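Here we describe the complex-level prediction in full. Unlike the single-chain runs in Section 2.1, the two entities below were treated as one system.
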Amino acid sequence: DAGVIQSPRHEVTEMGQEVTLRCKPISGHNSLFWYRQTMMRGLELLIYFNNNVPIDDSGMPEDRFSAKMPNASFSTLKIQPSEPRDSAVYFCASRYGQLYEQYFGPGTRLTVT
Amino acid sequence: QKEVEQNSGPLSVPEGAIASLNCTYSDRGSQSFFWYRQYSGKSPELIMSIYSNGDKEDGRFTAQLNKASQYVSLLIRDSQPSDSATYLCAVISGGYQKVTFGIGTKLQVIP
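The structure predicted for the assembly as a whole is:
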């Protein structure tokens, strides 16, 4: 079975540009999570969807960040405008059921110069 | 108080020894508990899940859960250099079944 798929794997962009990260969850999974990981702050939950509906977006740092899940097999995380402090690895994860384990994608390493 | 606490380490153990990793959590109503392993530059990989008090064994790994004391631990027997990684504790709690991760403990197994 294919795991969680993320694209792009690496993104280098200039400050002020729009960045869009993409995620395809595991087929049949009904929850999707976006995380950001940095050395200083560890793994931070940005937003969590259940059945395509955003359930908890309290981790989204500011209005520059937005996420959508138009259907069960696709989600995007957008940063507009990007800033150097957004540089991090962004992970997408999915799970089946509310109490079960998540499976992570390979991540997108974002560098904003 | 952080919701999920781990010692960031590094924890150094000699090859063949038992590595003991600990995690405490603040929400007494937490329901599900997981250990993930993350190698440098890679994504977190699930190694153990535990849902009820007691021990759960899987090969060289044993997860232990004590809900009364609000801690969960991971024991790695016969530690190998390939076990050197960061181990993340994750807890599901709250009405939204939100997942919270600890900062992770870096384990170094010395040959």
